[in-house]
Write a structure and sequence with these properties.
It contains 8 helices and 8 strands, in the order H-H-H-E-E-H-H-E-H-E-E-H-E-H-E-E. By secondary structure, it is α+β, with helices and mostly antiparallel strands. GO terms for molecular function: DNA binding; DNA-binding transcription factor activity. This is GntR family transcriptional regulator.
Amino acid sequence: MNQTQRIKRVNKTTAVQKALENLREYIKDTVSEVLPNEDELSRYLGVSRLTVREATTVLEREGVVSRVQGKGTLINSFVTKLENRIDCGSDIEGCLRQNGYDVRFEVDELEFRKATKVEESKLGLNPEDSILVVKKILYANEMAAAVYIDRVPEKLLKTKKFTAEDLRPCIFPTIESLCQKSITHDVVQLYPHGADEDLARIFNIEINTPILRFDVLEYTSDSITLMYNTEFYTDKFIKFTLCRNVAYKE
């Protein structure tokens, strides 16, 4: 059977999203190294060439395909083999569960306090502003796998009627509800970090042991910085693979 015959037609009301879903399914199963051209994809999917172009542009940004002049849209098979991707909203807790670990969260600290200079800068606050700080530990088989420190400007909270238990699972739906705003995207910075005394105690490692630090800013659709989060990981349970688009100029 022709490989392209397995590409499913889509409902036009959700054209780009459904085209992406069907193309990802096709790319996962195909033995071909090149996508059909736009005219062929438009015909197979039952959508316009513009919809096809938008969908393949998303795939190109994700590194799944590469457009090469004279060769077409190439499928990057090494990318399709990556099972979990942090740039596609991968769930660390879910990944651990899928790999057979018993997972739980524990709220280690919960407080309102004045923001530090760094926190003021990250969250766009004034010197007198306070923040809600939630520190959580993710355990895998009762061993610390990650530490999360989440910060929310107090002035954005519409209510303070919540408990530590409300913040124990994934914190984002609760914060969205408390602030009556929705998080649409985030910006992540990765740093090498030497474990301080507190992190060394939690992870049961030596002080200054290298660990991975993420600084994450969570934004709403109207560009309000809703949260500033810091995440710490050791390589005992969690490792990240970075796949980059590169271009060299002569």
